[in-house]
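Hi Y.,

Following your request, here is the sequence exactly as I used it, all 182 residues.
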Amino acid sequence: MNVETVHYLNIFLGAGAIILQVLSVVALFLLFFTSGGNSRNKFLDYINKHFLVLSFLISVFASVFPLVYSEIVGFLPCYLCWWQRVFMFSTFFLFGTAFWDKDRKVVRYTTPLLSVGFLISVYQNFFYYFGESSSLPCDASGVSCYQQLVSEFGGYISIPMLALTAFFSLLTLSAVVHFNPK
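Below is the corresponding structure, written out as tokens. Let me know if you'd prefer a different format.
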């Protein structure tokens, strides 16, 4: 894959990640900081109604594009990325099965996986953006995301940020399904 194509892929995924981040924050704000009362929120109702489709699509993208980066582009994953893949790939199969069976109880099974993947991703992002190069858990001497292979939108979008966005948005969808009154 040539450099220009990789750049456009990074822009596409980065823009999608920023949109997912904004929508997730809006959903959490509406869920926890607006009065329930008798009025229903159409945005939260939409998420609640289409939870299985949305979560499956996000998990598909979050599972396919790391494989594109590693197998087609040639960006090998570091060990923190591998751990995040373990948790994201398994949720892909769980959300896929739940989507097929129309099983909304999948939230019970995926939330622990998403939470652990999210914590690993927060850890990786903390050191990626704020850590000193001497204390990085995944140094740049071998395979590492700290080599900044993806750096778009002023350095905000990186491979660790893409993973964090996927886990955050899936956890947000799960929170809406769990806490939004039916």
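Residues 3-33+43-179 form one domain.

Thanks again,
Q.
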